[in-house]
Amino acid sequence: MDALEIERAVERRRVWLDRQLDVAATALDVSVVGEPVNTFDMRSAGAVARVESSDVWLRVVVEDADYEPVCRWDGNVSANSIRGVAKPAVLRWHDWQHDDEYLRGRRLRGEVMTLALGTTVAPGGVLHDDPRLPDTWWQDLRRSLEALAAHPTEWHHELGAVASTIRSVEHHFGITLAEDVFADVSWTTAHADLHWANLRRPQMCILDWESWRPMFAGYDLATLYCNSLRDPVTARRIRDMPELHTRSGRLALLSAICRYLWIVGEGSDWDLLEPHLRTEAEPILSSMTRRTD
Question: For 243-263, how does the pLDDT look when each residue is reduced to its tens digit (9 = 90+)?
């Protein structure tokens, strides 16, 4: 597929998602009043909507087996059980199956959520300069992540995080990690997709809860750190947090580095992170691994 064909396919998907927002709005009895916003992968779209005299967020997502179980179908809804975290709440939702020719048979979900005020810290996910967030914002973030880490879950190692990290390190660095490297790792509940496009300001709020799950302790700070590497001020602030100086925190950082190396080259802001990510990985790997032939 050449560049023009890709552009046409993306535009067709964008128009289709916009229509699905209208379908969801009708089913959930809200009126779309804002411009639609699409995710980078064109898997979901959202817009400000109005119900009676209140503004809400309307989101529609199309089911895609390639994203499971990383993005769980019920992630946003099940996250309603989490307490003590600054986040939107899903007020109601509606599922349906698409029957027209384009993407026939796909299941879709519309969600009406409380509206997160303010603006996204960095729409592309990656910081390019100091956002000058106040100390109160950082304090709210830490309180939310501590509450999230303590949230009980009924599942463990859901995504095979250990096996995935071992496989990724071998692929990206040619290094073999022994499984016993992870023997003493601590696990906590994590958002697992914490970058700057999922954070709001001036009032701190964490968006996008499709991926929350158990991960290595410190993983959320590790992903946020990776997305801050082009801004030394913010990167240092996160790197100095104690969670990243534990054994679990170092493994969390290694796992996060590998996660972003997989998407380098796809034409997003994450392409700019590659040299920084590799530099960050070197001391972690040199302390615990051996290189393969």
Answer: 999 999 999 999 999 999 999
Superfamily of domain 3-115: Phosphorylase Kinase; domain 1 (3.30.200.20)
pLDDT for res 239:
97
Strand partners, 81: none
Per-residue three-class SS string for the chain: CCHHHHHHHHHHHHHHHHHHHHHHHHHHCCEECCCCEECCCCCEEEEEEEECCEEEEEEEEECCHHHCCCCCCCHHHHHHHCCCCCCCCEEEEEEEECCCCCCCCCEEEEEEEECCCCEECCCCCCCCCCCCCCHHHHHHHHHHHHHHHCCCCCCCCCCCHHHHHHHHHHHHHCEECCHHHHCCCCEEEECCCCCHHHEEECCCEECCCCCCEEEECCHHHHHHHHCCCCCHHHHHHHHCCHHHHCHHHHHHHHHHHHHHHCCCCCCCHHHHHHHHHHHHHHHHHHCCCEECC
Domain segments of the chain as ranges: 3-115, 135-291
pTM, 2 dp = 0.92
Residue 82: closest CA among 28, 144, 25: 144
